[in-house]
Amino acid sequence: MGEENHIEKAEENHTGNANGEVVSESGEKYYSLEEIKLHNTSKDAWLIIHDKVYDITSFMEEHPGGEEVLLEQAGADATESFEDVGHSTDAREMLEQYLIGELHMDDRRKESKKDVFITTSGGEGSAWTTWLIPTLAAAVVGLMYRYYTL
Ligand code: HEM
């Protein structure tokens, strides 16, 4: 019984990876940039591509583009280099078998913080000014009109 459960879980993980979106239902892992940086040798190499972390140690010698380019990027974010080469769909599918987790939220460069900033400061500020300035202008014009017509 225990064994059956184990097999089912393994298959579930595999499907999740093939979708390319969900890492894993049960074993989601987040790694800090500091930890990833430590894996930068040919015997222990990790890469970050699109905020996901890959242990490519066993792939180094197989890489059609050579071991050296991977070693240069090991322990770092290789998203740009990976995309610059224009890797095929096959290459992208290969990535999934080396996936070990995701980059920690704190180490990501995301737009979520910017969104919050724009909503809070932008909304309040502009509503206040657009309302106040025309009101003051109207009051001044009204006073001047009254002054000159008396
Ligand atoms: C684990 C990550 C990677 C995988 C699975 C991977 C896989 C592949 C594959 C399958 C190819 C053959 C061509 C293709 O199908 O697109 C290839 C070629 C190549 N890759 Fe990667 N690659 C990875 C990371 C990188 C990185 C980070 C770089 C750059 C620093 C790189 C540079 C290259 C180059 C220069 C070629 C040769 C392109 C050519 O000769 O046309 N690869 N890679």
Uncertain runs: 1-26
First-to-last CA distance: 98 Å
Cofactors, ions and other ligands in the entry: protoporphyrin IX containing FE
Strand content: 5-15%
- Helical segment tally? 6
Q: Oligomeric status of the shown chains? A: single chain
Q: For the residues shown, what is the average pLDDT?
A: 80
Major sheet summary line: 6 strands, mixed
Structural class: alpha/beta
Shape: rod-shaped
Total strands: 6
* Percent of residues in helices: 40-55%
Order of helices and strands: HEHEEEHEHHEH
Rg (C-alpha, Å): 28 Å
Main location: membrane
Organism: Anguilla anguilla
GO molecular function, one term: heme binding
Biased composition (Basic and acidic residues): 1-14
